[in-house]
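Lecture notes, unit on protein representations.

Consider one protein chain, 73 amino acids long.
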Amino acid sequence: MNEAASDAAFFGCVVESCPGAAAEVSEVVRCQLTAGRGACEDVCAADADGCAACMAEACAPDVAACEAARCEG
């Protein structure tokens, strides 16, 4: 989801997610919108590269769960 070309594409991905992955997609978005649930606030305020690394680590469990979710019944 970090590879979306625009905000519209990112939110389109969220809106068009299947019910089988909806909760997992929502958790990834929640993690990203809250700076890793607060874990990366200080880093993100100071350093973009450090922010990306912190977010990747802080949101890794949510991303892994999202990647494992399946749309098939």
